[in-house]
Amino acid sequence: MAYEKINFVNNSAPPLSADNLNKMDNKIFDLDAEIESVNITRQGNEFNGVEQLVKTDATGKLPAIDASQLTNFPLTDISSKLNKTNPAIVGSITETVYSLTGTLINPANGTIQYKTLSANTTFTENLTAGQSVTLRIAGGDTFTVAYPTITWVGGTAPILTANDVIVFWKESTVLYGAYIGSLV
Length: 184
Fold this sequence. Notes:
Elements: H1 18-25, H2 31-37, E1 97-99, E2 104-105, E3 112-116, E4 121-122, E5 124-125, E6 132-138, E7 145-146, E8 151-152, E9 163-171, E10 174-182
Parallel strand pairs: 1-3, 2-5, 3-6, 4-7, 8-10
Antiparallel strand pairs: 6-9, 9-10
């Protein structure tokens, strides 16, 4: 079988085309039929089927997938690889500091909270086992404060001053409180 010469320009092969393939094989055939039979495509087509090419987005990146698309992932049980008993923290932790606008002590708002009292106040809470909140209360010397059911370190609720810090934490279903001290 004789082949015709394909000319290279600037040391680059010419684009793959039906004309160039025909020159190589020295015969004429239906390139589109050949392409379809081996799942080859032309640039710019989109693909949706299994084991087909994926079209990139406008930035040239692959589209995002969610975790449900991952199969045969080597770390199928990654949680077993983590040491949850003694985690190491490198660097510092910056906590969210939340100005408590209502009366609900909620750790989802941040574990450091403060409340400036403008009236007598009854606090509520929604901590779950293992959660804690540090609460600074300003104005406790002027207004009365009532708490949810708490087991206080020392046995009784503190007598507040103008600026105080209390820590709340929950073990199982029991809420505990510790008066840290006055800031005045």
